[in-house]
Amino acid sequence: MEGLVIKSTGNRITVRQADGLKVECRLKGQFRVRGIRSTNPLAIGDRVIFEKPAEENIGLITKILQRDNYIIRKATKLSKESHIIGANIDRAFLIVTLINPRTSTGFIDRFLVTATGYYIPACIVFNKKDLYNETLSEQEKELCRIYEFAGYPCFSVSVLRGENINQVSNLLQGKISLFSGHSGSGKSALIMAIDPTLHLKTGDISETHLKGKHTTTFTEMYELSTGGYIIDTPGIKEFGLIDFEKSEIPRCFPEMDRLFPQCQYNNCSHTHEPGCAVKEALKSGEVSWLRYNSYLSILND
Ligand SMILES: Nc1nc2c(ncn2[C@@H]2O[C@H](COP(=O)(O)OP(=O)(O)OP(=O)(O)O)[C@@H](O)[C@H]2O)c(=O)[nH]1
Ligand SMILES: [Mg+2]
Ligand SMILES: [Zn+2]
Predict the structure, then answer these.
(1) What φ, ψ does residue 264 adopt, rounded to 5°?
(2) Which of 1, 30, 287, 301 maximizes the CB count within 10 A of its CB?
(3) Do 48 and 113 have their domain in common?
(4) Range of the domain at 18
(5) Is the CB of 188 within 6 Å of ligand 1?
(6) Among candidate residues 37, 64, 91, the one where a domain is terminated
């Protein structure tokens, strides 16, 4: 039988059959996906083949079907192992907070590079706008301008006040969407605002560090009552890139990649070459220094 992996807590895996029935399964033997050294050979969103003899309670997953795509990062900062955040995703949402906790543009850009690298459409949801003062409000506006110009739709919401939630909901129907971001950015709270029939755990922000407390500990896929699925993920602190060649990075900055045909050299890295259209665009302010500095930092990693 074929099914969709919606939850995995160590060795217990929940698989959803096409008819909606959920089956508890385990993996057959030691599983390795070819070419990927990962802490989780099986990812949420994977399509699998499983067997379940009528007299057994637990099914056995025998095969992981080829993934259309996935989002992957380094398991920890120094690790060579990777962690697959989710597989077979139609759209990735990065939930960003400018305050409580603060999300850096470096973090945003690494996430976007990974999504773009794997051809997953990505967008940014700025949450907690109810906490903004004038400065933060200006910062958000500027970031939206930069990221929308790059090609990533931006939304400005407040889960607390129920503002602009429908702009996000509108994109979810019939799709598999992944929500990622720092702990405490409001991923789980946003999912409940989108579908109040769902019950997820949310947690307070720590008063001393103004950061989340890692309330969501396992990735889980939820079926929306309006159709479609959302993958809620545990908050992440850093987004370490893995499995990228240097030569792939320019393509993952769409606003720079668009200028590439105008660069003098057809292998321009937009760093030291004369006649570089990206560097010209930096001078004119068309390409932002924030994004360019992220680009350099990722290239030099
Ligand atoms: N002020 C304000 N607080 C919010 C908003 N959205 C969520 N929160 C609060 O932020 C805290 C964290 O929300 P969660 O949904 O648990 O955050 P999370 O991103 O799922 O965090 P992890 O599961 O730890 O990764 C909760 O106390 C929420 O009530 C918002 O729009 N404004
Ligand atoms: Mg959560
Ligand atoms: Zn160039």
Answers:
(1) -65, -40
(2) 287
(3) no
(4) 2-64
(5) yes
(6) 64
